[in-house]
Amino acid sequence: MSRPRTTLTAVAAAVAVVLTVLAALLTGSHPATAQREDRQSGAQELGDPDYGVCRGTNPRCYHAWDNFDPATDGYRVLLYTRTAGPRHANLGPALGSGLNPALADTNVVQKSLVEMGRANGFAVDWTEDVTQLATPSRLFRYNAVIFFSTSRDTLDDAAQTALRQYVRGGGGFVGVHNAFGTEYNWPWYEGLLGGANFYDHSANQPGTVVTEDRHDTSTEDLPARWEFTDEWYNLVPAPSKVRILATVDESTLPRGVTGSQGHPGHGRSHPVAWCQYYDGGRAWLTTLGHDAKSFSTDGSFAGAKEFQKLILGGIESAMGKKPFCRAA
């Protein structure tokens, strides 16, 4: 009885091989080639995803569709700080509904960016009301949209669609600090962040920021190395296809870089600021910005002046007021 079963098994295997070869001939590919391509495709998808859009540092990924006319309308940005999870102290209490609700003294981020804009020739509107991001036409009033320490799922379906269409139409995006802890399960947004996402962070502690690329608008006036205190973000994935602008020297962190979830850090290249063109728009990103004192102006917080220059340059370049993601 064993021989017939063995014969049937062998016949079935032979038929499978013949069918595979015939399929390969019909499609013009060889099975071994197809397997190799599958492995390569899988490796690319896991190691360097493109999120199905044009992304990288080449300005050919940008759509100049004349949605903005600074000569007529000036420069204006929208600051979005809504939190649906942990809320950083420098954001202060949750804001009321609508556009430009009342601010308390403890709304440090909002008040600081409004003043930064006033001092540098651009207007800042602020909100935590998701309906203010509900349509592309609302967002096209702004040369850039800034997510500063938003958290978790802060956008509904309409706002997600509007943000995507805004970026595709040539809009600018600035993501600061816990913008990386936002919209975790939205691959397009992860790509907007540079193909990066928050995993955990080290203790809040001083360290040395290394200015890796001093040709960009956001870094051209920064020293090669400068001291700063932050909770240094560890990322999974780490950014890819971006221009790295600044890193942290992990060896300068007195309490180490290992995060609360066990991430060991990024070794010799631990990025903290970068830029890219993405899906038709411009995206400038930094993981820095935890402490309200980073907006101080009295010299009491090491690196505050440098941080503010970094942020200002990122905003001005993302909105198109100054050159964006500039290479040597």
Automatic annotation (TrEMBL):
Keywords from the named record: Signal
Signal as UniProt keyword: yes
Signal peptide range: 1-23
InterPro entries: Class_I_gatase-like, ThuA-like
Keyword Signal: yes
Residues in ThuA-like domain copies: 103-316
Pfam families the UniProt entry points to: ThuA (PF06283)
Gene3D superfamilies: 3.40.50.880
Name of the protein this chain belongs to: ThuA domain-containing protein
